[in-house]
Amino acid sequence: MSLPPHFQPERVAEVWRVDYEERASDAEAWARAHGIRPAAHDRFRMCLVAVDIQNTFCTPGFELFVPGAPEDSRRLCEFVYRNLAVLTEIVPTLDTHQAIQIFHAAFLVDENGNRPAPYTLVSAEDVESGRWRIDPDIGIDADYLLRYTRELEAGGRYRLTVWPYHAMLGGIGHALVSAVEEAVFFHAIARRARPEFEIKGFDPLTEHYSVLGAEVMGDRNEALIGRLLVAFDAVVFAGQAKSHCVAWTIDDLLSHPDAEEHELARRMYLLEDCTSPVVVPGVVDYTDEADAAVERFRAAGMHVVRSTEPIESWPGLGHALSAGKNE
Question: Is 171 helix (H, G, I), strand (E, B) or coil?
């Protein structure tokens, strides 16, 4: 399918107001012109999990900008528009934070009351030695930080990372990238299918890379896990960042006790050209970790594809799409 005329790929790195009324009219006309039926009639059901495609990560000049994200976002918009008739549901996730959280500098101090710099890694040994502790003015049990960092390390997770303040609820950084917001809205109108937004990361006492659950010592999103396990014929992943929130969401899903029973891996697809790792030049580079994660996914049976490839050519989809064509 061609791209609708309102889409301006050169503006993907900008922040702007979506004209909802005009886009709604455009989407209804587009659906009529192209014979796109409501998603409720889909026999082949495809879900797109769009992970944290927010200004805070994807727009130059924002707090945790991921190099490569604007091009990832452009390709994802094009993927959504070209595959409107096949995409049944979009699940945008929103990293959602407040100032006082365990991974923000305001939560921690050293023995002199100094706060950690962004990208500081806090180990259990650091906490045991007194290098870092919870700011006593916050009023949280001082022993919590040691229990938390020990559990992180025991589970093989990333060490506690002090991130720049980012994805602050109510701020412009928290919002979806404007072009992506517009594509999601256009899909909703054209297919009569509301996006299922998922909020993550608001718990002040844990990190929350995966939309499916906290790193440690937090809740699991059992409702979403259950839907991804059984409600779709294909589940597609894209977003930011490949090394963190995308990787951990996929890991959580593939490692679920019921994943093998439901043959989930063969129904999962990663749009590798719509996701990039965290890289802060001269500070941190998680490219190797992202690449290792993708290889784990391949080994588990998940499909790694590109958004520019016709989905009919994706492994396992040609016959399935023909048998359950949404028309």
Answer: coil
Q: pLDDT by residue (tens digit) across 91-110? A: 999 999 999 999 999 999 99
Asked whether residue 208 carries a pLDDT value surpassing 70, the answer given is yes
Angle between helices 69-82 and 178-191 (to 10 degrees): 10
Q: Is the peptide bond before 241 cis (omega within 30 degrees of 0)?
A: yes
Residues 94/52, Cβ–Cβ less than 8 Å? yes
Two structure tokens written together for 203? 């718990």
Encoded tokens for 197: 């937004």
Residue ranges of domains in the chain: 23-99+165-323, 105-161
Q: In the CATH scheme, what is the homologous superfamily, with its name and number, of domain 23-99+165-323?
A: Isochorismatase-like (3.40.50.850)
| Residue 228 to residue 219: CA distance in whole angstroms | 17
User: What does pTM read for this prediction?
Assistant: 0.95
Q: Report whether pLDDT(195) > 90.
A: yes
Question: Is the pLDDT reported for residue 317 higher than 90?
Answer: no
Mean pLDDT, range 8-33, rounded to an integer: 98
**Cβ contacts of residue 246 below 8 Å, gap of 6+?**
51, 237, 238, 239, 240, 270, 275
198 beta partners: 93
User: φ, ψ for residue 26 (rounded to 5)?
Assistant: -60, -45
Residue 327: how many CB atoms within 10 A of its CB?
9
Tell me the mean pLDDT in the region 166-191: 98
Q: In angstroms, rounded to a whole number, what is the distance separating the alpha carbons of residues 92 and 195?
A: 7
The SS3 call for residue 232 is: coil
Q: What average pLDDT does the segment 71-81 reach?
A: 98
For residues 208 and 200, is the Cβ–Cβ distance under 8 A?
yes
pLDDT in the model for residue 286: 95
Residues 141 and 86: their CA atoms lie apart, in Å, by 50
